[in-house]
Amino acid sequence: MKKKIIAAALSALMMVGIAGCSKNDNTAKEDNKVKITVSINPVREFAQAIGGDKVDISMLVPEGTEPHDFEPKAKGLEELTKSDIFAYNGAGMEDWIDKVLEVAESSEKVTVVDTSKNVNLIKENGKTDPHTWLSLKEAKNQSKAILDALVKVDEKNKSYYEANYEKFSKELDTLYNDNEERFKNLKNKNFVTGHEAFGYLCRDFSLQQKSVEDMFGEGEVTPKTLESLASYCKENNIKTIFSESLASPKTSETLANEAGAKVQKIYTLESKEDNLEYLQAMKKNLDEIYESLK
User: Fold this and answer.
1) % residues pLDDT > 70 (the chain)
2) pTM of model > 0.85
3) Cα–Cα distances in Å, from 293 out to 72, 183, 185, 209, 237?
4) Domains and CATH numbers, the chain
5) According to the UniProt entry, where is the signal peptide (predicted)?
C-alpha cells in the first residue's frame, strides 16, 4: 500500500510538471547532444558504446544500488521528461518500471526503448530471467534496440551510430569467439554462485550454475540448502564460490567454509565496479569462471 501511495504521488507531481511543458518543447540540448536516460548500468554501457560523444547519459538507479530495491524519485522522473530517449533493460529487471513508463509516455518528446524486446528470454518455472546483458549474444540485440532509437531521434548522425554499433558488435563477437572453443573443451561445466544471475552467460557457453539464492536474489537460505550445495561442491570438486558485490558475501563465505572452497568476486554489472567497462568486466568474468573449471 505504501508503494502505491508513493507511486500515485510521484505520478501526480510529474503530471503537473509535464502539463507546464509545451508539446513542441525542443529547447537546445547541451552541445547538441542527444539526451538519454537509462534505468541501470548495463543499458548505460550499451548506450555509451553506440552513442559515443554525441549523447549525454543519465541513470535512474544510482551506482551501488541494487536495482530490485530501487524506488523512483520525483527529481529523477522530472529529468526523464527532458530526455530524448528513455532506455530500460526490460525482462522484468525493473519491477518498478510501470510508474516510470507512465511518466515517460506522457511526454511526446521521449522515445521509450525496451532493450530486451528482441532478446531470446530464459523462462523457468513461470519466471523470466532478467539478467539479459550477461550474454554477449543478447548484448548485441539490446545494443541494436538503442541504435534504432538513436537513428530515429538523430537521423543526421545515422552513419556515426551505425559505425559505433558495428565496432561494438565485432568486439562482442571477438570476446565470444575467444571463449567458445576453450569452454567447449572443458569436461567440467559446473560452477557455483551466491546469486543465480548468470543463466544467459551459461547458455552462451553451455555451462551450468548452481546458486544459493534465485535469479531475483530471493529464497530462504536454510542450513539444508547450504549443506546440499556444500555436498555438491565436494562431489564435483568445485573449489571456488563466486560472489557479487551488491549481494551480501556472508552466505557465499559460509558455503565456501563448508565446502572447503575460496570466495571469488564476479561482476553482475548491475552497477559499475572497479571502473571496468562492459567488455572488460565480461572478460574478467569469463577468465575467472574458466580458471575455476580447469
Assistant:
1) 88
2) yes
3) 40, 9, 11, 12, 9
4) 2-16+31-157 (3.40.50.1980), 186-293 (3.40.50.1980)
5) 1-19
